[in-house]
Amino acid sequence: MAIIESKGDKAIDRNGKTRQAALFHALADPTRLLILEHLKTGEHKVRELTEHLGLAQSTVSAHLACLRDTDLVTVRAQGRSSIYSLGQPESLDELLSVAVQLIPGQASEHHWQEAHAQRTAGV
Ligand SMILES: [Zn+2]
């Protein structure tokens, strides 16, 4: 997904700020955060993600395309399906744990795992 760049402002990009911004852009959407958290439980096909999260396939595909622009998510082919998994699960975990501490009044609340209640039943 394209990131808006300030024309002529090379100083901003000198330290990789554009790439950092692209990473945070990927994290700047509740649905993408939900998908990332869901992938913690293991790799998924797009169809599985749509079923487990109750989202339209076009929605899931668009968000995965955005996440694939970073190293947050990796994809491999299996037959005609693409299988998605987390690229760097430990780093993501660490990043999100720190991020939660920056949300006013929410330091101890963490509901990510609830999103996957269906799958723990044996999917
Ligand atoms: Zn699932």
Automatic annotation (TrEMBL):
CDD domains: HTH_ARSR. It holds the Pfam family HTH_5. Keywords: DNA-binding, Transcription, Transcription regulation. InterPro entries: ArsR-like_HTH, HTH_ArsR_DNA-bd_dom, Metal_resp_trans_reg, WH-like_DNA-bd_sf, WH_DNA-bd_sf. One of its GO terms (molecular function) is DNA binding. The keyword Repressor does not apply. Residues 12-106 form the HTH arsR-type domain. The keyword Transcription regulation applies. PANTHER family: ARSENICAL RESISTANCE OPERON REPRESSOR ARSR-RELATED. NCBIfam families: HTH_metalloreg. This is Metalloregulator ArsR/SmtB family transcription factor.
